[in-house]
Automatic annotation (TrEMBL):
The lineage of its organism: Bacteria, Pseudomonadati, Pseudomonadota, Alphaproteobacteria, Rhodobacterales. Gene3D superfamilies: 2.40.40.20, 3.30.200.210, 3.40.50.740, Dimethylsulfoxide Reductase, domain 2 (3.40.228.10). This is Molybdopterin-dependent oxidoreductase. Residues 16-72 form the 4Fe-4S Mo/W bis-MGD-type domain. It comes from Roseovarius gahaiensis. It is found in: Cell envelope.
Length: 942
C-alpha cells in the first residue's frame, strides 16, 4: 500500500502585491518591501536590492507593521479646550486648524517674525523645514542636532570636511583594524552590523572604546571600558605615543593637510596665531624644491613639514611644529593619563603600537592611477588599513567638540582618511568649510530671512548678534556662549523662551520633538515652563503648535495639534540636500511614498507646511498670482529647484536629451521612476574617483557633473582650525566684535585651534566626592526613538529598564537581584530598579534611553511596565550647570557648539526599600486617543 502524505502548503502567498519604500524605524533609511494583502499591510521585509541594507532588516524594521497600526496614532486635528497639560481637546477640521495656525502666525510674520520659534525633532526633511522657516522670516529654526551629535558633525567638518555615520564610513572591504568610540546600537545599525560581519569574516580586529560593553562593543575583539568624558585624553595619549615613536604618515601630512602651513608667531601682531597667506588668500608653505614660500596648492610644490620662515626677527613655524611641541609633552604620556581614563598605561601603549603596526606594516596598495589637485599623477592608491567610527558617546560632553577633533587628528596623523582601508567620505561629502553657508539672522517684517539659519562661522563677524551685540536667536546659537553651534540648541529653546532671554516669543511651533519628556534635560522643569502663567494668568509661552503622528507626552502641552501620518502613509525625500543614503562609492537618495492611505483624518506634516506656507503668502510657497505653489510635499519634491537644475532628488531629472541624473529640470514622473526602482537612486563613482576625494581631480569633476558642486572644491585638512584662533584673538582684545568679559577666559581656554582636553564642566561645578559616579543613557538596538517603546512587538524586548551597576559598586552597596536604588544628582533624584552588569566601567552606571513613559501617554495601559518600572535619567539632568559661586548659571553645554552635555552627569546611589513604582511618579495625563485595547491583533484576511 502506498503511503499518503498530507497536503501542506509550505509556501503560502504572503501578499498579493509588494510595494517598495524606505524604513523609518530608525535613521538607517533601509530599503523595505511592504507586502500588501487586500489593501492592508501584511508583512515587511528588507529589500535585497537596496544599497543601504542589501535585504538585512532588524527587529525595528520588521515591527514597522505595529508602528503603522499603533493605537496611539492621532486621528484628527485637535484644539485644546482645557488647561495645558490636562489633555482636554476637541477634534476640529483641517480647515479650522489651518485657519487657527494662520491667524496666529500671520500677524507675527507681519510685525516680528522672530517671535516664531520653529524647531523640529528627528525628522529627515530638514532642508525643507529650514526652507519654510527661512521664507517665514524667523531666525529661530533648527532641528535636534544640538541635543544629539553636533559636536561630531561640526568637529569633523571643521577639521576634515566631513564626519562619521551619515557623512562617511569605514572601508569595510579593506580595513584590518576597526576602532569604535562611544558607539551604541541605534545609529546606522544595519550597515555597521553588516560591516563588522565582513571584518570578522576576514579576521580583522575590532577594538571598542565605551564605558558599557553591549552591542558592537560586546562583539569587539578588545573592549576598553573607559571613564566617561576622558576619551579625548586617551586619544591624545595615543597621539603622544605615535609622535614619540615617529609612526605618523609624513608624506600624507605634507601633501593633504595644513601641517606644513606656516603660523604667524609674532606675539605683537593682531594676526598672531593665524595662518600665513599670500595676496590671494592662499595659505603658505615652504616648498622643499626651492626653499621658498609658496601657496599650498601651487602645481609642483612639495610642502616642507620641517622648514620655518624667519621674517623681521620672528620665526614663523609650520603647524607640524606646534603639534609636536604640544603632544610630546609628558602630560600626555600613558602614565600621566591612565588613572583619569581608567585604562592602564600598558594598554594605551599596546593600542598605539597596534595602530601603527597595522597602518604602516600592512599598507594596502591598489593598482589604480589618479591625479591630484596639484597636477601630479600617482600610479597607485596607497592606504592605511585602520578605520575609526564614533558617535554620541564621545560627543555629548562639554568637552565633546575638542574630543571629536582629537579623534580626527589621530586618523589624519596615521594617514587613514580617504585612503584604501581607512575612513571614507560619502557624497555629497567631503566639503570644505568654505563650501557651507554661514548662519543668517537678519529679520525684516513680512519678508524672508536674509539667508539660511544654520551654517559654519569663520570668526566673530559671522556670529548671530543684533546691532547691540545681543543674541539674535532664541536658543542663543552662534553667540559668544557657543560660537560654532552649527545645529542650533533645541534643548535651550523652551527655557530661554520662558525666561524671555534674549526676548519673548509668541508661538512655539514644533514637529516630532517630545520636549515634555525624553527630549529635554530637566523634564519636570520644562513641563512647568510649558504650563507657567504670568501675573495676568496668561501663559508665559503664549501659543504652542505641535505635530506628531502619536499621542506622546508632548501632545498634552500644545494648544493646536496637527496630526502627522505614519511613515507608510506619506511622502518623504531622503535628499542629497539633506541626509542622503549615499555610500562611499556612490551618491544615492531615496523616497518614501504612501504605500497605504491613512484611515484617519491626518496629513503628512510637510504637506501641511506647503498649504500653511501658501495661506501665509510665503514667497517660496506661492506663485506670482498668489496661488498655492505646491499642492503637497510630493509636488514640492518633484518641482522645487534649490537652484537651476538642482532639486531635492538627483535621479531621473529632465535633460536636453531626455532623462538624466544629477543636474536637470523637474520631471513630472520622477517619483514614479523612483517607485519603479525600489524607492531609491544610485550613481556610482568611477574607479579613479573612489579614494582621495578632496584632492582627486576625477572625483571633483564627477561631483561637479552630478551637481554636488558648481566647481571643483579641492582643499586640505585643517589639523589647525583657524576660525577657533580668530575667536581667541577676540577674547585677547583684537577686533571690533568683543566677547563679554565673563566669557573671555573660557573662549581662550576652550576654543583652541589644536585639539585639547579639559575635564567635563559638571566635574568642576559638582562635588565629585559626593557625586562620584558617572551616569549614562544608551539607546537599545531594538528601539531608536521614544516611538519604539509603545510598539506592540518591540515592547516585548524592552518593556522596562533597570539601572545597570558595575560589580564593584554592586558589591560595595550590598545590592541583590530585585533591589531598588535612589539615584541623586545635584539637580534631583529618582528611585529605580537596579541590575548587575560586570562588563561596565567600575565607576559608571547606565540605563536604556527613552523606555520610561508617562502614564496616559502613547495609549499604554496606566499600569504598563514602561510607566511603572521604566524611567528616565533626564530627571537628574538640568539645562544649566550647578551654581559655581560666581553669580552666573552656565549652560550645561559644550562651549564651542552648544551641544547638550547630558553624558557629563554625576550621581550618588543608595539602596532603598522597593517602592510600588519608579519615582518620580508623575500624575497621569489624559490622552486624546485614550488607552489601547487589552489585546492587539491585526489579521489580514485571505
Amino acid at each position: 500500500m502506498s503511503h499518503q502524505q498530507p497536503k501542506i502548503d509550505t509556501s503560502p502567498e504572503v501578499s498579493d502585491e509588494v510595494r517598495k519604500t524606505t524604513c523609518y524605524m530608525c535613521a538607517c533609511r533601509c530599503g523595505i518591501n511592504v507586502h500588501m494583502k487586500n489593501g492592508k499591510v501584511a508583512y515587511i521585509e528588507g529589500n535585497r536590492d537596496h544599497p543601504v541594507n542589501r535585504g538585512v532588516l532588524c527587529a525595528k524594521g520588521s515591527a514597522g507593521i505595529m508602528q503603522h497600526n499603533a493605537p496611539s496614532r492621532l486621528r484628527a486635528p485637535l484644539k485644546r479646550v482645557g488647561p495645558r497639560g490636562s489633555g482636554e481637546f476637541e477634534e476640529i477640521s483641517w480647515d479650522e486648524a489651518l485657519q487657527i495656525a494662520t491667524g496666529w502666525l500671520a500677524p507675527i510674520r507681519a510685525d516680528h517674525p522672530e517671535k516664531l520659534a520653529f524647531f523640529t525633532g528627528r525628522d529627515q526633511s530638514q532642508s525643507f523645514t529650514s526652507y519654510w522657516a527661512q521664507n517665514f522670516g524667523t531666525p529661530n529654526y533648527a532641528a535636534h542636532g544640538g541635543f544629539c551629535s553636533v559636536n561630531m558633525a561640526a568637529a569633523g567638518i571643521y577639521t576634515m570636511g566631513g564626519a562619521f555615520w551619515e557623512f562617511g564610513q569605514p572601508d569595510w572591504d579593506h580595513t584590518k583594524l576597526f576602532m569604535i568610540f562611544g558607539v551604541a546600537e541605534d545609529h546606522d545599525s544595519n550597515p555597521i552590523k553588516m560591516g563588522i560581519g565582513k571584518l570578522k569574516e576576514r579576521g580583522a580586529k575590532v577594538i571598542g572604546v565605551n564605558p558599557i560593553r553591549s552591542g558592537y562593543n560586546a562583539v569587539a575583539d578588545e573592549w576598553v571600558g573607559i571613564t566617561p568624558g576622558t576619551d579625548g585624553l586617551f586619544i591624545l595619549s595615543l597621539v603622544h605615543e605615535l609622535l614619540k615613536s615617529g609612526r605618523i604618515d609624513l608624506d600624507y601630512l605634507a601633501r593633504y593637510t595644513n601641517a606644513p602651513v606656516l603660523v604667524n608667531m609674532d606675539p605683537t601682531s593682531s594676526e598672531h596665531g593665524l595662518l600665513m597667506r599670500d595676496a590671494d588668500g592662499k595659505t603658505l608653505v615652504i616648498d622643499r624644491n626651492t626653499g621658498q614660500l609658496a601657496p599650498f596648492d601651487q602645481p609642483g610644490v612639495r610642502p616642507d613639514l620641517a622648514a620655518s620662515h624667519r621674517h623681521a626677527g620672528v620665526t614663523h613655524k609650520p603647524v607640524m611644529h606646534l603639534i609636536a611641541e604640544r603632544y610630546l609633552d609628558p602630560q600626555y604620556a600613558p602614565e600621566a593619563v591612565a588613572d583619569q581614563c581608567g585604562i592602564s598605561a600598558d594598554k594605551i601603549r599596546a593600542i598605539a603600537t597596534e595602530l601603527a603596526r597595522v597602518a604602516f606594516d600592512e599598507e594596502i596598495v591598489l593598482d589604480q592611477e589618479w591625479t591630484d589637485f596639484r597636477g601630479e599623477t600617482h600610479k597607485v592608491m596607497k592606504g592605511r588599513p585602520v578605520a575609526f567610527h564614533a558617535m554620541r558617546g564621545i560627543s555629548a560632553h562639554s568637552n565633546g567638540f575638542q574630543t571629536c577633533r582629537a579623534l580626527h587628528m589621530l586618523q589624519i596623523l596615521l594617514g587613514s582618511v580617504e585612503v584604501p582601508g581607512g575612513f571614507r567620505f560619502k557624497p555629497p561629502y567631503p566639503k570644505p568649510v568654505s563650501a557651507h553657508p554661514k548662519p543668517h539672522c537678519k529679520v525684516t517684517p513680512g519678508k524672508p530671512l536674509d539667508g539660511p539659519h544654520l551654517g559654519f562661522v569663520q570668526g566673530p563677524d559671522d556670529l548671530a548678534l543684533d546691532e547691540e551685540g545681543n543674541p539674535a536667536r532664541i536658543d542663543k546659537a552662534f553667540t559668544w556662549d557657543n560660537p560654532m553651534s552649527a545645529h542650533g540648541l533645541m534643548h535651550m529653546v523652551i527655557s530661554n523662551a520662558h525666561a524671555g532671554d534674549p526676548y519673548k516669543i509668541d508661538t512655539l511651533f514644533m514637529y516630532m520633538a517630545n520636549m515634555a519628556w525624553n527630549s529635554s534635560m530637566n523634564t519636570r522643569g520644562v513641563i512647568d515652563m510649558l504650563t507657567d502663567t504670568d501675573e495676568n494668568g496668561d501663559y508665559v509661552i503664549p501659543r504652542i503648535i505641535y505635530s506628531d503622528a502619536y499621542s506622546s507626552e508632548m501632545v498634552a502641552y500644545a494648544d493646536l495639534i496637527l496630526p502627522d501620518t505614519t511613515y507608510l502613509e506619506r511622502h518623504d525625500c531622503i535628499s542629497l540636500l539633506d541626509r542622503p543614503i549615499c555610500e562611499a562609492d556612490a551618491a544615492a537618495d531615496a523616497i518614501r511614498w504612501p504605500v497605504i492611505e491613512p484611515d484617519r483624518d491626518v496629513r503628512g506634516f510637510q504637506s501641511v507646511l506647503c498649504e500653511l506656507g501658501a495661506r501665509l503668502n510665503l514667497p517660496g510657497f506661492v506663485n506670482a498670482d498668489g496661488s498655492q505653489k505646491y499642492a503637497d510635499y510630493a509636488d514640492y519634491i518633484t518641482n522645487h529647484e534649490r537652484k537651476p537644475g538642482i532639486g531635492p532628488l538627483a535621479g531621473w531629472r529632465t535633460g536636453e536629451n531626455g532623462l538624466t541624473h544629477g543636474r536637470g529640470g523637474p520631471n513630472a514622473e520622477q517619483l514614479d521612476h523612483y517607485i519603479e526602482n525600489g524607492g531609491f537612486f544610485v550613481e556610482h563613482l568611477p574607479d579613479a574617483a573612489r579614494y582621495y576625494k578632496p584632492w582627486n581631480t576625477a572625483y571633483q569633476d564627477w561631483a561637479v557633473n552630478l551637481g554636488i558642486f558648481d566647481s571643483p572644491q579641492h582643499y586640505i585638512f585643517d589639523l589647525y582650525v583657524e576660525p577657533l584662533r580668530r575667536f581667541q584673538l577676540a577674547a585677547e582684545g583684537h577686533g571690533d566684535r568683543q566677547p563679554p568679559d565673563h566669557l573671555r577666559d573660557r573662549i581662550r581656554e576652550t576654543l583652541d585651534p589644536l585639539p585639547i582636553w579639559y575635564p567635563p564642566f559638571e566635574d568642576s561645578g559638582t562635588d565629585t566626592d559626593e557625586f562620584s559616579i558617572h551616569a549614562l543613557t544608551q539607546r537599545p538596538m531594538a528601539m531608536y526613538h521614544s516611538w519604539g517603546s509603545q510598539n506592540a512587538w518591540l515592547r516585548q524586548i524592552h518593556g522596562h529598564n533597570p539601572l545597570y551597576l558595575p560589580t564593584k559598586l554592586w558589591d560595595a552597596k550590598g545590592f541583590a537581584e530585585g533591589d531598588w536604588a535612589r539615584v541623586t544628582s545635584a539637580h534631583g533624584d529618582i528611585t529605580v530598579p537596579v541590575a548587575h552588569m560586570a562588563a561596565l566601567n567600575e565607576n559608571t552606571v547606565w540605563t536604556w534611553n527613552a523606555i520610561g513613559k508617562r502614564k496616559g501617554a502613547w495609549a499604554l495601559d496606566k499600569d504598563a511596565p514602561e510607566a511603572t518600572k521604566g524611567f528616565l535619567l533626564n530627571h537628574l539632568i538640568h539645562e544649566l550647570l550647578p551654581p559655581k559661586g560666581d553669580g552666573l548659571r552656565w549652560a550645561n553645554s559644550d562651549p564651542v557648539t552648544g551641544q547638550a552635555a547630558w553624558f557629563d552627569l554625576r550621581v550618588k546611589i543608595e539602596k532603598v526599600t522597593p517602592p510600588d513604582e519608579a519615582q518620580p511618579d508623575f500624575a497621569p495625563i489624559k490622552s486624546p486617543v485614550g488607552e489601547g485595547p487589552d489585546h492587539l491583533e491585526w489579521k489580514v484576511s485571505e
